[in-house]
């Protein structure tokens, strides 16, 4: 099922990936790339540029510490003092070689059945999109009821619009890892950034603009329902976004009139740079050379239990002054007590990162062994984010700090210093996620789960580790 069973989450300790479906792994790798870019910008100071990220202005890095309320809100809005932002002129597109598992592919799943008759679903409520985690009493009496109570996988494929767990064999251990359709739907509100990356980079521009699927793996109805997404008609494509036309307005108008499960969120704006920014779904006739359809034409295929991830090297031109670490053996530096040492200790990886994982752990390592932690694991991402915060703090005390003095009085105290404290002082990963700096993100996710992705059950159990 390519995800970690719920019973194993407490053993993960931040070292094991919870979900290694391609879409989810790609997003985690993207976040690692973003943090690596942040690191290079922090090393180079305000004169360092990146094709993907930019330094934010003092006005954007809004002060919040002195006026923060208990829920993270401030007199001027939610905390929004990230030092970096995704560049306005760089659009994010995502290609998937198969339809995302879950709601967006239900029609395709039905069409692939030898007998596509709907399964009997006992005692379902009358809502068109019922919460799949609560159609039964709290003490289910049958195995079918128990399965629905803990989110359906591929089962009950006639139940459309529902939040689903990762599909798996019937004898697979239980998991609460949500389907790729559900996770991508949430990303339309949460951006592509993880909570760790969102401490350093404003989420405002980090949203998928377009999701591209092969024609053979596309269900228009499924995508509209799962994402409230639309595909422009041929008459509209010539006036699309980026060409001075009305493509965005056309998509919004069509989706508002549709039946998608995210439609209630149209126009919603939260604090901290979060908003509902639905992506467009487009198709391509080009097939991935190793897709199931291409490979099956010439040979017998079997599903691989490996997952492979790769990210490009940081794009700055900074020349390291100390020997670089091998990309597959580098480990993020944990928070440095003396921030002034951070610039001296920093090392730039000369290449991108690539790895193969098996069961969420580096291939060749025992599962749950810290030495087998993926570069996209929670523990390593936390360590890298803490290193970036240390570098930013160190820049304030050196030559780079003198260049950054024009950023405005108090910016370091309420921005970089806040981030550094949150990352360094959190006792556990769970404590970090509950930081006041991430309050806007929590509020947004709570609203989306309550209003659109009803029945979403959180996949808890791997929050009690520290670095």
Low-confidence blocks of residues: 63-72, 124-149, 232-244, 317-337, 399-409
Global geometry: globular
Major sheet: arrangement of strands: 1-2-4
**Fraction of helical residues:** 25-40%
Strand content: 5-15%
What this model shows, in words?
By secondary structure, the chain is an alpha/beta fold. The protein has one domain. It is 30% helix and 8% strand. It has 17 helices and 9 strands. It has helices at 9-12, 22-44, 106-111, 143-149, 180-190, 195-198, 220-227, 234-237, 247-256, 292-295, 342-345, 378-395, 399-403, 411-414, 416-425, 429-433, 439-451, and strands at residues 53-55, 84-86, 92-95, 201-202, 208-214, 280-284, 306-311, 353-358, 361-362. The strands form 3 sheets. It has a 3-stranded mixed beta sheet, covered by helices on one side. Strands 3-5-6 form a 3-stranded parallel beta sheet, with no helix packed on it. A 3-stranded antiparallel beta sheet has the order 7-8-9, covered by helices on one side. The radius of gyration is 23 Å and the shape is globular. It starts with 8 loop residues before the first helix and ends in a 16-residue tail after the last helix. Residues 63-72, 124-149, 232-244, 317-337 and 399-409 have low confidence and may be disordered.
């Amino acid at each position: 099922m390519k995800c970690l069973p719920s019973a194993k989450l407490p053993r993960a300790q931040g070292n094991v990936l919870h979900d290694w479906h391609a879409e989810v792994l790609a997003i985690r790798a993207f976040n690692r790339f973003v943090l690596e870019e942040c690191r290079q910008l922090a090393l180079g100071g305000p004169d360092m540029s990146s094709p993907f990220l930019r330094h934010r202005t003092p006005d954007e890095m809004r002060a919040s510490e002195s006026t923060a309320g208990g829920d993270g809100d401030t007199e001027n809005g939610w905390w929004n003092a990230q030092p970096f932002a995704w560049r306005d002129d760089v659009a994010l597109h995502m290609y998937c070689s198969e339809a995302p598992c879950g709601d967006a592919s239900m029609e395709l799943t039905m069409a692939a059945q030898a007998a596509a008759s709907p399964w009997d679903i006992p005692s379902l409520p009358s809502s068109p999109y019922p919460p799949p985690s609560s159609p039964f009493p709290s003490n289910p009496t049958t195995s079918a009821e128990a399965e629905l109570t803990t989110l359906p996988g591929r089962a009950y494929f006639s139940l459309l619009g529902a939040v689903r767990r990762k599909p798996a064999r019937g004898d697979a251990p239980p998991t609460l890892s949500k389907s790729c359709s559900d996770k991508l739907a949430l990303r339309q509100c949460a951006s592509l950034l993880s909570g760790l990356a969102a401490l350093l980079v404003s989420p405002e521009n980090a949203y998928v603009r377009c999701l591209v699927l092969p024609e053979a793996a596309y269900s228009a109805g499924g995508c509209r329902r799962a994402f409230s997404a639309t595909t422009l008609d041929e008459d509209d494509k010539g006036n699309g976004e980026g060409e001075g036309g009305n493509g965005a307005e056309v998509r919004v108008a069509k989706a508002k009139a549709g039946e998608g499960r995210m439609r209630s969120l149209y126009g919603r704006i939260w604090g901290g740079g979060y908003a509902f920014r639905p992506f467009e779904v487009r198709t391509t006739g080009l097939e991935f050379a190793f897709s199931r359809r291409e490979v099956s034409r010439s040979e017998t295929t079997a599903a691989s239990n490996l997952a492979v991830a790769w990210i490009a090297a940081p794009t700055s031109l900074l020349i390291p002054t100390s020997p670089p670490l091998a990309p597959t053996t580098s480990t993020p530096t944990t928070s440095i007590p003396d921030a002034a040492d951070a610039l001296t200790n920093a090392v730039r990886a000369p290449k991108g990162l690539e790895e193969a994982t098996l069961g969420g752990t580096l291939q060749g390592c025992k599962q749950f062994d810290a030495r087998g932690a993926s570069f996209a694991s929670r523990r390593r991402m936390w360590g890298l984010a803490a290193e970036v915060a240390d570098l930013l703090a160190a820049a304030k005390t050196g030559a780079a700090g003198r260049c950054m003095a024009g950023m405005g009085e108090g910016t370091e105290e309420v921005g970089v210093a806040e981030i550094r404290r949150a990352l360094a002082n959190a006792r556990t990963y769970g404590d970090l996620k509950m930081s006041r700096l991430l309050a806007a993100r929590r509020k947004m996710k709570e609203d989306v789960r309550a209003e659109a992705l009803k029945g979403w059950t959180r996949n808890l159990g791997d929050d009690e580790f520290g670095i």
